[in-house]
Amino acid sequence: MSLKDKAKATGKNIEGKAQEAxxxxxxxxxxxAEGKAKQTEAQARxxxxxxxxxxxxxxx
Length: 60
What we know:
Blueprint: H1 3-26, H2 29-59
Helix pairs in contact: 1-2
């Protein structure tokens, strides 16, 4: 996983956690849902990059 992509995915995860926490504090279900969605997106990005890394290892 490139360092740049990893940092973006980690940033998206942190952003999602913060937004979900804000939704929990304010009681806003939209913020909670959007926060969880961002975390899921970050997990998917990490998974894609992990697959790319494994393919690269097998090719090399």
